[in-house]
Amino acid sequence: MTISIERTTHPTNDAHALIEELEAELSEGYEAHQRHGLSVEKVFQPHIAFFIARAGGDAVGCGGVAFDDGFAEVKRMYVRRSARGTGVAQAVLARLEQEARAKGYGRLMLETGDTLTAAMRLYEREGFHACEAFGPYRAMRREQIERSRFFEKVLS
Asked: For residue 32, what pLDDT band results from cuts at 50, 70 and 90?
């Protein structure tokens, strides 16, 4: 499968569909106050670079990287079920990391859910390590982040 990763700067139909699918999957296992993802409108802000993965022209995944003071954060990482296990997630994550490096960031952070074991295995394989809550998550109430897992990768 040939995978292409393209940056998109506005909320396309594919971006809407992918983020809606991600939210639908997360809502099956997490209450609204435990989901910290951005809406499609918030993904397209100046401090976020958002990418769509395509295979054979079809949108199969997405991910964004938000730039904050001192770190970059992976946002809205998702791969459609039909494309899981094909390298799409690794390709998206590599592109997000490349974007963070290009902007001079030394750390790439992320938050994910405690039941998303395949995602956590991917992050660990790609060099991420578990860490404490960071950035805006530190100010959240315990019940908002008790099902969150946090990861960090130092970019060399």
From this structure: low
The length of the chain is 156
DSSP designation for 72: E
> What secondary structure letter does DSSP report for 115?
T
Distance from C-alpha of 65 to C-alpha of 77, rounded to nearest angstrom: 9
**Domain edges within the chain:** 3-154
For residue 2, which amino acid is it? T
Model confidence, pTM: 0.93
Query: Which CATH code of 1.20.1250.20, 3.40.50.300, 3.30.300.30, 3.40.630.30 fits the domain covering 3-154?
Result: 3.40.630.30
Angle between the 88-102 and 117-125 helix axes, to the nearest 10 degrees?
A: 50
Kindly report, residue by residue over 80-110, the tens digit of the pLDDT: 999 999 999 999 999 999 999 999 999 999 9
Secondary structure class of 70 (helix, strand, coil): coil
